[in-house]
């Protein structure tokens, strides 16, 4: 910690100035008291959760807590960095720090998986792991699963066996939900239930292969952490390292993460979790809302509960409607969000003819809002599934309205990025077959058979690096082979300082890039971006670990949003929009079959999560919220001018009893009279008699 400036004559500001009473209670709970019991903070949407958590951490430090003994768990590395920045800002202000002074760092702020990787590296020798273990990303894990699937003969079964990606998803669900394989198959993968015994064989082989190669997958970081906490001495050691454990977004944790926390702090002393059961929407990742609902009762001394219900984002009419929607939930922590932001404008329920009409309506509203002074960046279109926005995307493009849609190919999924990272991973762990298998085949004249023979030699050798140098490839590969051997030797040089490793890898990979890809120039820009990212890490191991655990969505995720126009609007799934906010929000397809999805109505729990999804979408809006209800949907697989369609009904989550909280749009104009009241009477005609005469 930097030396602090002498206290000024003026009274320093109180660290909790600016917090409302509930936020302050959460920041002060148990501070300075021994022991501080467990605390659950129910933080409603837009209630200043991040600020409250940051002020609590700062308050702990100001009252003597050692920052080295504070564990702060978030769900993204970026969130951890932001939390540390906010804590530092509070400390700077309260401690009267001079320019250039730095507040105490939080070395144990990070994601569950990132912290797990650090603890496993630290305890590797005690649990039978090599300290040089490497971590597979999802692509590598799928590839390993695919190889084993083929070796066990499951790629040649008479009936369709699950693909490698599905197999990995099933395995991951079993690990994170801590549920038996049969139960997972029945609930989430019923079409795979017939393969239960075969999948058990595959998963056993997968676990053994990872252990043989000293690699861990993403799920292992939690699984190994939880398993080593089952040893009393290790649990006591790890739990004793931290006086305070704070967890953000607790409603998004799975059973394994909850088990880790309870093993680290079995009495709950020093444990604080923050979340909102009304925003628990990630069950497809094995998260369970039961963790937050059942948290207070997990301890001999039940956890205290503090509710943050003052909203700083939305207007009161938007909150009234949102409160009413979530108020119909079967089970929840009761809270009604409120705000000082009064408004006469209710959220709107917009009825349109079909999806094309929905697209036209959205485009019209977006342009009208823009003309009224609302930038495109302050407007967002949200939807339940990615395919729901297709018509809107076409209409926005036709009208030259720029937009960015969240989703698509991730940066680390690009083949040239995977090539380079595979070389670095192979140097870090010579036993990693997948990385070596990929790198070897980058050379001309090296195919799967030659690569497998090389890796077999390295596996059997006491010194894998020497085996690589001694290997004799075919004649077609010999010229390029020398360069690979030299690059690998250089990468394994003791004392090499990062990012010199990356420079070596880039020099070797450059010619391969030019030979393998026609668009090498474009791809090189991605490699340059990777080099810039790498410069922010202290070692090759940290770079590979952090990039695997918290990858950027795309190149622009690290370098800033692409400058496609001076302004652009946002299109996003509701899941991706969580934690975001916009002045104007348009929610598509607010009908049964879309919200709730017809794929998520198999149980009461699934339906309740769909209700929470709508609530999350509604609470993203600051001032203008429009829920759009198409009246009919055209059936796919018909001619372009076909008229086969089904009718849509407004979502069950907005029953007629809540309709008064919304403004119905568009308002139908009154029908014009058919004739003037003062016009001459028209003769009566017996149409029925005429029809009878036809037969």
From TrEMBL:
Residues 1-30 are annotated as: Disordered. Transmembrane segments: none annotated. Keywords: ATP-binding, Helicase, Hydrolase, Isomerase, Nucleotide-binding. It catalyses: Couples ATP hydrolysis with the unwinding of duplex DNA by translocating in the 3'-5' direction; ATP + H2O = ADP + phosphate + H(+). Pfam families: UvrD-helicase, UvrD_C. Its EC number is 5.6.2.4. It is an enzyme of class 5 (isomerase). InterPro entries: DExx_box_DNA_helicase_dom_sf, DNA_helicase_UvrD-like_C, DNA_helicase_UvrD/REP, P-loop_NTPase, UvrD-like_ATP-bd. Residues 316-579 form the UvrD-like helicase C-terminal domain. One of its GO terms (cellular component) is cytosol. ATP binds at residues 43-50. Residues 22-315 form the UvrD-like helicase ATP-binding domain. Belongs to the helicase family. UvrD subfamily. This is DNA 3'-5' helicase. It comes from Achromobacter aloeverae.
